[in-house]
């Protein structure tokens, strides 16, 4: 019988011998081609929304010691809103021409997102040979948050890497390095600042040394190199504290857009604030010793609250919920139910609901799906935790935790695909 040479047999497509193998072999080419399509085609093509041009102009102005903070906020075009510390970090992008610089920035963010995904796999004890790897890669690059981060050429991919690095280093008790990861993101934008609360309640005080020190040092370096640093304080900072009625999916943003009474807007913000506090208390009281579950779930609750209750929240911020979404592989996850994934569809899906046939309903669905998703996610997390608490209280076992009986009494879940 004829046998092909060894080097040719290596090229022979493998046949899946289990359902896990079949899914992996099917998803890997789809995931890889989706990544390439998003990066090489969709991102390079760009879109009318362009977050990169203001950053490039600011970096070029900084290198030439010209004013940076002279944006006219009367227009809705993307503005340059970063602090001098971020401008310092961005300045190398202006060394080359704008087009190649943008391509490099797209590539850097795409690589950062892929590395963040790999670190999440390792955090949850998966390998690249597991079924989780292609599922996570495909999910990330099919989502609106990753797609528009690349298309608009935003810095969020690098911030996501900083978030995942912070969580991993926090869990491994490498506090100073965790603070460095957080400090670099804070130097760019303070969106991850709520996560410092997790370090606070865990008593990891050293995190704050570098988390505060890094942006302070970068600011001290950037301040004398900037032509107009005080304009950031007097011109840009006040704008950052305002709520706007466009491209804003927060409760207050939708309230402004739809003309809701201020009293109703504040009622909803307070109500969801209470929901967040109840969830965080139950997580801390009963799960703080389950470190991976506690840190990743609490981080998701804090970030969702930031998106929903602050003055500005945009759909592509949902990228920072990836650590929480990975908790679905844990037995005690609060996301193992269909309402949670209905919520996740709302803020991750790239689907558009604008309709030529039903313009009013389509516009409402398109604009509200993000707010609906964030809101429902907070409700689901709180409902699951409160239900577990009430059942445990009724059964008189609060002292031993609030996990359902089927989780406490069952054998540890075996997931062969992780190895």
Mean pLDDT: 91
Major sheet attributes = none
Radius of gyration: 23 Å
Beta-strand residue fraction: under 5%
Please trace the helix and strand order, writing H or E for each element.
HHHHHHHHHHHHHHHHHHH
- The total domain count is 2
Net shape: globular
**Record field, number of beta strands:** 0
Number of helices: 19
User: How helical, in percent, are the residues?
Assistant: 55-70%
Structural class: mainly alpha
End-to-end gap: 36 Å
User: Unreliable runs, pLDDT <50, ≥5 residues?
Assistant: 414-419
Keywords: Cell membrane, Membrane, Transferase, Transmembrane, Transmembrane helix
Subcellular location: Cell membrane
GO molecular function, one term: hexosyltransferase activity
Family: Belongs to the glycosyltransferase 87 family.
Describe the model.
The protein has 419 residues and is mostly helical. It folds into two domains: 22-241, no CATH class; 244-413, no CATH class. Helix content is 65%, strand content 0%. It is built from 19 helices and no strands. α8 (156-171) runs antiparallel to α9 (175-188) and α14 runs antiparallel to α15. The longest helix has 36 residues, at 359-394. The radius of gyration is 23 Å and the shape is globular. Residues 414-419 have low confidence and may be disordered. This is DUF2029 domain-containing protein.
């Amino acid at each position: 019988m004829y046998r092909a040479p060894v080097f040719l047999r290596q090229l022979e497509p493998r046949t899946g011998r289990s359902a896990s193998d079949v899914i992996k072999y099917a998803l890997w080419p789809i995931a890889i081609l989706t990544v390439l399509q998003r990066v090489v085609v969709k991102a390079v093509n760009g879109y009318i929304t362009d977050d990169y041009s203001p950053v490039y102009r600011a970096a070029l102005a900084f290198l030439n010691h010209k004013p940076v903070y002279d944006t006219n906020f009367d227009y809705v075009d993307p503005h340059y809103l970063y602090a001098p510390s971020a401008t310092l970090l961005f300045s190398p992008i202006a060394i080359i021409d704008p087009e190649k610089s943008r391509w490099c920035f797209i590539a850097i963010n795409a690589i950062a997102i892929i590395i963040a995904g790999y670190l999440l796999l390792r955090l949850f004890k998966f390998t690249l040979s597991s079924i989780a790897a292609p599922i996570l890669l495909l999910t990330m690059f099919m989502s609106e948050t990753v797609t528009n981060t690349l298309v608009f050429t935003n810095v969020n991919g690098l911030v996501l890497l900083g978030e995942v690095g912070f969580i991993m280093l926090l869990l491994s008790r490498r506090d100073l390095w965790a603070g460095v990861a957080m400090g670099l993101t804070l130097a760019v934008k303070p969106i991850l600042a709520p996560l410092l609360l997790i370090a606070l309640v865990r008593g990891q005080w050293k995190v704050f040394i570098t988390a505060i020190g890094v942006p302070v040092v970068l600011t001290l370096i950037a301040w004398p190199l900037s032509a107009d640093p005080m304009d950031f304080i007097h011109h840009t900072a006040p704008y950052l504290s305002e709520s706007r009625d466009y491209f804003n999916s927060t409760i207050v943003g939708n309230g402004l857009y739809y003309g809701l009474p201020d009293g109703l807007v504040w009622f909803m913000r307070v109500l969801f604030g209470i929901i967040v506090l109840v969830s965080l208390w139950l997580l801390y009281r009963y799960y703080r010793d389950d470190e991976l579950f506690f840190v990743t779930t609490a981080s998701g609750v804090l970030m969702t609250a930031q998106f929903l209750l602050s003055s500005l929240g945009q759909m592509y911020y949902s990228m920072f919920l990836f650590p929480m979404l990975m908790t679905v592989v844990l037995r005690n996850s609060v996301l193992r139910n269909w309402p949670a994934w209905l919520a996740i569809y709302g803020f991750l899906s790239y689907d558009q609901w604008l309709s030529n046939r039903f313009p009013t309903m389509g516009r409402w669905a398109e604009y509200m799906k993000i707010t609906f998703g964030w809101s429902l996610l907070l409700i689901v997390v709180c409902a699951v935790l409160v239900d577990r608490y009430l059942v445990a209280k009724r059964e008189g076992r609060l002292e031993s935790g609030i996990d359902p009986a089927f989780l406490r009494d069952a054998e540890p879940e075996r997931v062969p695909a992780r190895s």
